[in-house]
Amino acid sequence: MIESLKHLPHAASSSSALAEQFTDLAPALTRRQAAIESARCLYCYDAPCTRSCPSEIDVASFIRNIHDQNINGAAAGILKQNILGGSCARVCPTEILCEDACVRNHDEEGQPVKIGLLQRHALDHASFTSYPFQRAERTGKRIAVVGAGPAGLSCAHRLAMLGNDVVIFEARSKSGGLNEYGIAKYKLTGDFAQREVEFLLSIGGIDVQHGRILGVNLHLHELHTQYDAVFLGLGLNASRQLGLTGEDAPGLMAAVDYIADLRQATDLASLPVPKRAIVIGAGNTAIDMAVQIKRLGAEDVTLVYRRGAESMSATHHEQDIAKANMVRIRTWAAPLEVLLDDAGRVRGMRFEETRLDGARLIGTGAFIEIAADAVFKAIGQCMDPVGLSDQMAQQLTREGDKIHVDAQFRTALAGIYAGGDCVAPGQDLTVQAVQHGKLAAMAIHNDIQFKVEASHG
């Protein structure tokens, strides 16, 4: 994917200097810091932090366990609800979820308990003598899971716990999905995503097949015939288009593709880095892209959004990270034209300034040009249409450009379930994808058991 930027120079800094730029964004708590921070928790009855957690972690309980120096108990409580609790502790926007709900926000200090860091502390320091979960008696049922991202992995783990055998089909060469390929390198460092996958698979009963692409060498109608149920955890693998001439020019690429190459790079100094970069978008991916290209050595990085800062989907915390890394944020500007040099490569972009006319966004007729050696699109993603191109897949009911499911994550086709970013309900958050997979697994298991009982009745 990074071929679009091959004409650009490689990162100027040494490999070791660049590695220093991609250490933990938020350093882990020491044992003493964790003890002090856990003592700040009021252990509320019907705690608002727990109610705001998409994966239903009993926050007050695990923090109490940390305070009582029962680290394994804290970790087991987290993992019972969120088997990917380690990555979620690092990437979850706690500032708008559990920590935003913390009652400590309203006392004299006005500072919430550092729930995310405490969750990380519990999982990083747990030392289980044996795997903390046991499989139930085998049911003899086999379920296909398409996608080894957070939703698919969570679904597979819960199904295996309930005694089912699971086969995961994953298109890429590694499992982990967004955690492995799409999160900023300074949020999930080193090989953490793979170590978390290995821990999850230790439950047993889960087989993973890589290089299996739905719509290419894997087909929904075959899975539906061969397995007792199918779960689709497809994620959103296709980048949206700007719809502008020159969008395929060298120097313009999807931010998620660059981030994936960055995360898989063994030597950061080998990556092409523009001197001047534009990032188009307003979400956390746009922030991740802008900050990372700046840390790799880009001198001038401008993030451009067509609306105002108050409408950005990136949290204030993420916006502050961008500003701290000297990323310029330009709002009220809509992409209008890709500017090319004589060789047909990107040299910048022209934008039209915008404003609101009531609730409608309109152009003002004023234009700005921003010079750049590379432009990165972070304007959202959608499902790859190839994956749902066969005749059976086309029968899935859609809600917008996503798959419609009911409250139990059943699709319109009996025996086929879906969850995570590819379905309509909720936000595109890792923690919510984990919850979708877990709840879908329980629905699948119950539906299968009901069928068995009905056939025997």
Automatic annotation (TrEMBL):
Enzyme class at the top of the EC tree: oxidoreductase
Keywords from UniProt, A to Z, are: Flavoprotein, FMN, Oxidoreductase
| Listed InterPro entries | 4Fe4S_Fe-S-bd, DPD_II, FAD/NAD-bd_sf, FAD/NAD-binding_dom, Helical_ferredxn
Q: Which residues form a coiled coil?
A: none
Q: Which PROSITE patterns does the UniProt record give?
A: 4FE4S_FER_2
Q: Which domain of life is it from?
A: Bacteria
Q: Where is the 4Fe-4S ferredoxin-type domain?
A: 32-65
Cofactors (names): FMN
Please write the reaction equations for the catalytic activity of this protein. 5,6-dihydrothymine + NAD(+) = thymine + NADH + H(+); 5,6-dihydrouracil + NAD(+) = uracil + NADH + H(+)
Which EC number(s) does UniProt give? Answer: 1.3.1.1
Gene3D superfamilies in the record: Alpha-helical ferredoxin, FAD/NAD(P)-binding domain
Q: Name one Pfam family in it.
A: Fer4_20
> Does the keyword Flavoprotein belong to this entry?
yes
| Biological role stated in the UniProt entry | Involved in pyrimidine base degradation. Catalyzes physiologically the reduction of uracil to 5,6-dihydrouracil (DHU) by using NADH as a specific cosubstrate. It also catalyzes the reverse reaction and the reduction of thymine to 5,6-dihydrothymine (DHT).
Q: How does it assemble?
A: Heterotetramer of 2 PreA and 2 PreT subunits.
What protein am I looking at?
dihydrouracil dehydrogenase (NAD(+))
> Per the UniProt entry, what species is this protein from, by scientific name?
Massilia aquatica
